[in-house]
Design brief:
Length: about 550
């Protein structure tokens, strides 16, 4: 039998927990389901910080213009204005919830409490015209998760279920199809979201959770690529689930490749924060020569897409495995104090950034597209909200400005919780009308090789064919392979017992196909999407989003 809540939150990053705490303040009955531990989210791994206008020498207009410039003509101006203007209040809210951002060491306690004191130690990252990035050392995301997790666990009206993996969203159309069969489904009415089927990994049982409001905050899809800075949970679950029930998705061709991940055979995609370049880091070829001045006037502080493409070009030209990020000209004590986590990790691999350059390569880092939402974070399916990397709000356009992602996630988490109150006064979904999960004839599989083989193949051809530089031929190769794999996964899904690995493979297959289809539809190069067959902007038509929607249930 289904359990019913006011709010069902799928995911556990900054967007999810910002929403949960705001809904909790309103007295709502909130359920959070997350497929790993509560603090195991992309947010936890964010090193650089969160951008907001916090000093008088900075301005909303400057932050807006920096964001628009990075977004290469595809940002929604109204969204950019909204997020930037709500940034300072969002920071205040996070601080009220217990998050501690670094402050400068030369202010008094009284000054630290003053609005214009400049008490926060602000850093600068690529594409920013001012220092406006708040941070907590080089583990900002971990500090944010520490504070938000503690706040969530203190609330009696928030239930947290860890090791629970969402299977599929439930909507009015999907439920009607489950009850009557696809052939007898009536003409489409409002396709409202009702909740989700969720796998309890401890028991293997698929549970039914219904809610007046469902929030997807499942993060990105970095694991669709062979090399990524993302943790293992980043398999595009929310984007895939929303697409399967008919929500619009947009701009998934815009995959941000972080320019600098640690290159070491034993390092598992460890991110080398952009903040190092913000503090004076220099990118060099293996012969020690600097190269970014040949690519952009801002050199190492150019937007990420330009830096990543420059490194990719250098590697293809020279045949080297990596380039070098040189910090040796900076004060050694400053480096160890400002970047303790990066310093410690690099040292564990035998790299002392105080005395030798750090070997770095680009890696898939962030999805700028996602589930299309409005100014309140609601998708095109009523009752389904999306926050964070799973959403396409229009803030980032064709390329995300550094440290805008945490800001976007928390702003829309707060906004969605307030806006969704309109559903809380309405009747809850009827639990008796929603069928329990039907296992059918599924049996435990003795062919896990199907999962590992297809997973590895997707990640490898996505890296080779749908990476930093694309061509029509590469994209078409990827499309053909995905069509074959999709059918293999579909067949396997219907006869095998549901597991997290299978669900993640199913989702990553869907997201890979969406990325390729979006990339094929965009016949120009813009922002993060660079197609060598269309190397220039399309200046004949107004910039437009790439929108995909699936009309039929699967």
């Amino acid at each position: 039998m289904a359990r019913v809540f006011d709010d069902l939150i799928i995911g556990s990053g900054i967007g999810a927990l910002s929403y949960a705490l705001t809904a909790s303040d309103q007295g709502r009955d909130v359920l959070i389901v997350t497929k790993r531990a509560l603090n195991e989210a992309n947010t936890r791994y964010a090193q650089g910080g969160i951008a907001a206008v916090m000093r008088s020498e900075d301005s909303f207009d400057d932050h807006v213009q920096d964001t628009l410039r990075a977004g290469a003509g595809l940002c929604r101006r109204e969204v950019v204005d909204l997020v930037v203007s709500e940034g300072p209040r969002a920071i205040e809210r996070l601080v009220e919830l217990g998050i501690r951002f670094d402050k400068t060491g030369d202010v008094t306690a009284a000054q630290a409490d003053a609005e214009e004191s400049g008490a926060y130690d602000l850093t600068r990252e690529g594409g920013h015209s001012h220092r406006r990035v708040l941070h907590s050392g080089d583990i900002t995301g971990a500090e944010i998760m520490r504070g938000l997790e503690a706040a969530v666990r203190s609330r009696s009206n928030i239930t947290v279920l860890e090791e629970h993996c969402a299977v599929d969203l439930l909507t009015t159309r999907k439920v009607e199809g489950l009850r009557t069969g696809p052939a007898h489904r009536p003409p489409a009415a409002e396709n409202r979201c009702l909740g989700a089927y969720v796998l309890d990994e401890t028991t293997g049982q698929v549970k039914t959770f219904l809610a007046k409001v469902t929030l997807l905050a499942t993060g990105g899809a970095g694991k669709v690529y062979l090399y990524t800075s993302n943790p293992d949970v980043a398999t595009g679950d929310g984007i895939a689930m929303a697409y399967r029930v008919g929500a619009e998705v947009a701009n998934l061709e815009f995959i941000q490749f972080h320019p600098t991940c640690l290159f070491h055979p034993k390092a598992k995609s460890f991110l080398i924060s952009e903040a190092l370049r913000g503090e004076g880091g220099i990118l060099r070829r293996m012969d020690g020569t600097r190269f970014m001045e040949a690519y952009h006037p801002m050199k190492e502080l150019a937007p990420r897409d330009i830096v990543a493409r420059a490194i990719d070009t250098e590697l293809k030209r020279t045949g080297d495995d990596h380039v070098q990020l040189d910090m040796t000209h900076e004060d050694p004590d400053f480096l160890a104090k400002r970047f303790p986590s990066i310093h410690e990790t690099c040292m564990s691999f035998g790299v002392d950034m105080r005395t030798q350059p750090i070997p770095v390569v680009p890696a898939a880092h962030y999805v700028c597209g996602g589930v299309r939402t409005d100014l309140d974070g609601e998708s095109t399916i009523p009752g389904l909200y999306v926050a964070g990397e799973a959403a396409c709000t229009g803030l980032h356009g064709a390329n995300r400005l550094a440290s805008n992602s945490l800001l976007e996630a928390t702003v829309f988490g707060f906004r969605a919780a307030h806006a969704s109150r309109k559903y809380i006064e309405q009747p809850a979904p009827d639990a008796s009308a929603v069928p329990d999960w039907d296992t059918g004839n599924a049996v435990p599989s003795d062919e896990r090789v199907v999962i590992t083989q297809n997973w590895d193949e997707i990640r490898r051809f996505m890296w080779n064919y749908v990476g930093i530089v694309r061509t029509n031929r590469r994209l078409q190769r990827a499309q053909r392979r995905i069509e074959t794999i999709r059918e293999e996964v579909r067949e396997f899904y219907w006869y095998a017992t549901v597991t997290r690995d299978l669900l993640e493979l199913r989702n990553i297959t869907t997201v890979a196909e969406l990325i390729v289809n979006c990339a094929l539809k965009r016949r120009e190069s813009r922002g993060l999407h660079y197609n060598a067959d269309y190397p220039d902007l399309n200046k004949n038509d107004a910039p437009s989003d790439t929108i995909l929607v699936r009309r039929a249930l699967v």
